[in-house]
Amino acid sequence: MNAGDIPSNRDKKSPGSLREARRLFYVSVTRPRKELAIVFQERNYSPWIADLSRRSKGDA
């Protein structure tokens, strides 16, 4: 889940594509029943990971 990979350039081509990619991302992170591992390079994570972290802490 590195920045630049998620969302991809293809996802950024239109607001609709970006919304759909973000929706699919959130669907995928809510599917695991016990555990979810998200892998990214140090200090190079997707902005969606930061948003997900804030939401999980109740800041959003």
Cα shape? globular
Q: Secondary-structure element sequence? A: HH
How many separate domains make up the residues? 1
Helical content band: 40-55%
Major sheet summary line: none
Sequence stretches where pLDDT stays below 50 over 5 or more residues: none
What is the total tally of β strands?
A: 0
The helix-and-strand class reads mainly alpha
Mean pLDDT: 91
What amount of the residues lies in strands? under 5%
Radius of gyration: 12 Å
How many alpha or pi helices?
Answer: 2
Distance between the termini: 21 Å
Write structural notes for this entry:
The chain is 43% helix and 0% strand. It is mainly alpha-helical and 60 residues long. The protein has one domain. The chain starts with 14 loop residues before the first helix and ends with a helix.
Task: Give the helix/strand layout.
Layout: H1 15-30, H2 47-56
Summary keywords:
mainly alpha
Question: Concise description?
Answer:
With 60 residues, the protein is mainly alpha-helical.
